[in-house]
User: What shape does this take?
Amino acid sequence: MYEKTDDCLFAEERKQLIIEAVNEYEKTTVTDLCERFSVSPGTIRNDLRELEEGGFLKRTHGGAISIKKVTYEPNTYEKEVERVREKVAIARVAATIVQPGDSIALDTGTTTFELAKLIANVPDLTIVTNDLQIASYLEEHSEAVVLITGGRIRKNFHCTLGQSVLDMIQNINVDKLFLATNGMSIAKGLSSPNLDTANVKSALIKSASQVILVADSDKIEKNYFVRFAMLNELDMLITDSGADREFLDAVEKARVEVRVAECECQ
Assistant: This one.
């Protein structure tokens, strides 16, 4: 069921991978996890008990099940360890679109953070973001003009939200927006578990001449609480080579350009 891990994992790293496995496969067993991580059943049971107490999963007899719902959203710390190779590959493709002199908006997210690292040395950029991690990185590593949207900080998500953020975005125009999403569906569009986050994304879309969605294939046909756009509002989708071909064909039929980042997907 799972790939076996060869290297020894620290306890916290192992717990993070357990969360990822449970959320991906919807359920898991103590036996499966013992085999994957080469640890004792007692160690796995302790991990599952602590993760249940933290609200990350629900224990069952002999294993655990996912508690993800349409309102569930992994925080930044959880996202940082999920599908890293896919996100880096997508960011590399996205970076080729950024040209000297561009004004761009970077939506909050781990894929857009990877993109920020790659474009830090592109000259004469103006970058708008509501992501604190992105702004901090660019402040230290780039000569770009960086505008961070001021507002309420969403704890554990490294971003700003609220009416003051929306007011600022509504008064700017950018050449390109690199947008993130929690889910993307042919029928229901792009969605987020959080209403405030969805409102910021909607405002960013309206501010941009070109809207580029950077989203790994795990987001395909997943729907969350709040829809903030339909797929035909995009100009381009950049995803990874694990994406379902039928989904990509449907996106192209909506007159959205599709670019696939090749990577050795997990």
